[in-house]
Design goal:
This protein is of the alpha+beta class. The protein has eight helices and 24 strands. The radius of gyration is 44 Å and the shape is flat.
Length: 384
């Protein structure tokens, strides 16, 4: 059965009707009574034609419930002869679209920014939105970008569908070489309490437990030789200092705030586009808070609405803040300020917050963060 047609019949003499249909060559897949005068049967396409013709002769009420099968789809496609051409055109356009490069993302792995040279190199190499994907050789493209942009030490390229991702890392400057013959001193990078001093080359110029100032010499670039004379050397060593970073924040305990008194007045205006028609006029207050809302009347077809403006009378009052909550708030601000001064790669050893009151009206928070960095640097680095 190429087609399965389900028909619903209602009327008298259903048995005689079915016998006549069989005599005229109709075939049934199933027949099911749903009532004394109602039946549902399943037949093929030819049987459906016979049954529909007989139904008119027997004055039966017949309704086609469903029609399934390959023949149904063939007829539907025949009625829509443009559908295959449209599907073929859609497939061709999709294939053409998916075979091109449309999205180019460039990212820096070291988050240093400066992706513009890579975009310029891609444009010079012909890799722009709309370029064919078939000619993309990711390895060769990465090498070509590096040759055009030598400031990048690494370039990686990968293709994900119609998207190409380029990742790069900027080249780092080569570290300076240690020259033991170049005389130099190591000085304190900042004020600190010196905890330890490990001298690897040169002569110690400070002692642990001593408070040193920024720029003070910690390791002098000189040593005694076998002839008991001094010679200049490149000082080398580590000086661990105890440093405190501070941050401050303050806020008043009392503040002026506005509170509603309970009195409210309403102003209502009928609006249609730029047209306005006052309906009610409310009272205005010296200190007030305004809230407005739209009440639609006409719907989407007619943009008619009522603009309702509620004015709440307010008064200015002096309010005392919750001291504990206020201390917590300004304490966080002070601590964030202190932590913002942390040198790169240095972790805090300890931190605490001190509170004080100014004239009984202002709460002040002072955050202290203790760090223990290596404070020994060359004088050139200090001046830079």
């Amino acid at each position: 059965m190429t087609e399965r047609v389900t028909l619903r019949f209602q009327g008298l003499m259903l048995e005689k009707f079915l016998e006549r249909a069989l005599e005229q060559g109709a075939h049934f897949d199933s027949v099911r009574r749903t009532g004394r005068r109602r039946a549902v049967l399943v037949t093929d396409g030819q049987g459906a034609v016979v049954l529909m013709a007989l139904a008119r002769q027997f004055a039966l009420d017949v309704k086609e419930v469903s029609r399934r099968g390959p023949g149904v789809w063939a007829r539907r496609l025949g009625r829509r002869w443009t559908l295959p051409a449209a599907l073929a055109l859609c497939g061709a356009l999709s294939l053409s679209f998916l075979s091109r490069l449309w999205i180019i993302d460039v990212g820096m792995l070291d988050e240093s920014g400066g992706e513009a040279p890579i975009f310029l190199a891609l444009e010079q190499l012909g890799y722009v939105p709309g370029a064919p994907l078939g000619r993309v050789d990711t390895r060769q493209l990465a090498l070509s970008i590096q040759s055009l942009c030598p400031e990048f030490s690494y370039v990686g390229v990968r293709v994900q569908g119609v998207r190409m991702v380029v990742e790069a890392t900027r080249a780092q400057d080569a570290p300076g070489l240690y020259d033991p013959q170049a005389a130099r001193d190591l000085v304190a990078a900042q004020d600190a309490l010196l905890l330890s001093l490990d001298v690897m080359a040169g002569t110690a110029a400070a002692k642990p437990g001593q408070v040193v100032k920024k720029g003070q010499v910690l390791i002098r670039g000189e040593e005694r030789d076998q002839r008991d004379s001094t010679r200049g050397v490149c000082a080398l060593g580590v000086a661990i200092g105890r440093v405190w970073l501070t941050g401050q924040a303050q806020a008043p305990l009392t503040r002026q705030v506005f509170r509603d008194t309970g009195r409210v007045s309403y102003t209502r205006t009928l609006c249609l586009l730029d047209w306005r028609w006052p309906l009610t006029q409310g009272e205005r207050f010296a200190l007030e808070r305004l809230e407005s809302r739209r009440l639609p009347i006409g719907g989407l077809a007619l943009p008619l609405y009522i603009l309702e403006e509620a004015r709440f009378q307010q008064r200015e009052v002096l309010e005392r803040a919750d001291e504990a909550a206020l201390k917590e708030q300004i304490g966080k601000i002070a601590l964030e300020e202190a932590l913002s001064a942390l040198p790169e790669g240095v972790q805090p050893v300890d931190k605490w917050i001190e509170y004080s009151m100014i004239e009984g009206e202002i709460v002040r928070a002072r955050a202290v963060v203790e760090i223990r960095p290596n404070i020994a640097v060359a004088r050139e680095a200090l001046n830079s």
